[in-house]
Amino acid sequence: MRPILLSGHERALTQVKYNKDGDIIFSVSKDHVVGAWFSYNGERLGTYHGHQGALWTVDVDPTTTFLATGGADNTMRLWNVQTGKLLKTWEFGSSIKRVEFSSDGSKLLGVTEKRTGHLSTIVVYDIVQDVDAEQTDEQSLRIVCDESKATVAGFSYGAKWIIAGHEDGSVSQYDVKGGELLDNVMVHEPDMPITDMQWAPDRTYFITASKDKTAKLISTKDLNVMKSYNTDTPLNSAAITPVKDYIILGGGQAAMDVTTTNARQGKFEARFYHKIFEEEIGRVRGHFGPLNYVAVHPLGTGYCSGGEDGYVRVHHFDKPYFDFMYEVEREQARM
Amino acid sequence: QDLIKKNSANRAVVEHRRRLLEEWLAWRASVEEELKAEGIVDALEAMNVGKGDDFKDGEEVIE
Question: What are the WD repeat spans here (chain A) (predicted)?
């Protein structure tokens, strides 16, 4: 099936997310606008207006009731998905780089940027599960990342821990109750920022992408690096596919560093690796600039990528994608 | 001679993959076990995505 092109954003995409059913894609861009699209045909469902600066991050709760966004206007916002109504604005002293709901939707975290006079923090709010209710101003948890600023963070399975990725290439595990730092492990090249962190469906492991041109598969419980995927380009995003044991990586050199040779070498491709064997198995072309984010359909039937070129490309996997198997996988399946 | 060399190299690759797959499946089994023991519902539910009917539904959408 041909990819569907979502054109509507006027500037670079920064994050794209499927809802839990996979029928809707939410997109955020440097153009200040949040977009919602039907994933199967690319039709635009609506937009959410209000942010006064570039948007860096978006997430949707498991019931597709609440949408959270954050950006350069130093606000984190909560929206009613269905009506587009702005329900809550939390203001900070610096921009919001990442928002993410816990898997049950009861908690929302935000990662704030480090800036003169402002520390890098991870803040948590308890979300009242009612669109008509007043949401709280009280943070149920605030973690200060004083060693190295956090770039990404999320809740583990059972919301036991908060896992964060840092600018210095390390990942941390924090206790979700008191916010104590339980563990910190250098998983990427030192001082190469972690650019993305995405969960496996059950959140017992996750994948990180880094400017060091690698992605790592890490266990949530002990932060053990289980797999490493090596590429030839700085990575902005990494996703784990359900159903098939693949991972998808996206990246590319920033526009100012790109020579025509580089562009021709085609680094603006989504790269597929076998999750267990760490081998590259395919690439998908299309974007004219770096891929800033890749997201996988929760049922593993497709993926979408948001590019520096301002487009979202939505792909539905074809039969060969599902049929492809290594010989040892066939053996295993027969057993 | 070359053919023998090639075959044994291939065999080594296959052996390596077989070991990686077994290691992975063993780790997954231990994780599943642990989640069951701790009663972590959200993770256990998520593990079943793609294993049953969900996957078939997904395939129909593609056709």
Answer: 6-37, 48-89
Of A299, A326, A327, the CB nearest to B58: A299
Number of domains in chain A: 1
Q: Which residue has the tokens 């937009």?
A: A47
With beta carbons under 8 A apart, name residues in chain A contacting B40.
157-158
| φ/ψ (deg, to 5) at A286 | 150, -45
Supply the pLDDT for residue A2: 85
Nearest CA in chain A to B45: A202
Give the SS3 label for residue A49: coil
Nearest-by-Cβ selection for A318 from B35, B57, B62: B62
CATH assignment at residue A196 = 2.130.10.10
Q: What is the ipTM of this complex?
A: 0.91
The boundaries of the domain holding residue A40 are 4-334
CA distance A277 to A183: 27
How is residue A118 annotated by DSSP? B
Of A262 and A333, the one with more pLDDT: A333
**pLDDT value at residue A261:** 52
CA-CA-CA-CA torsion for A326, A328, A333, A334, nearest 10 degrees?
120
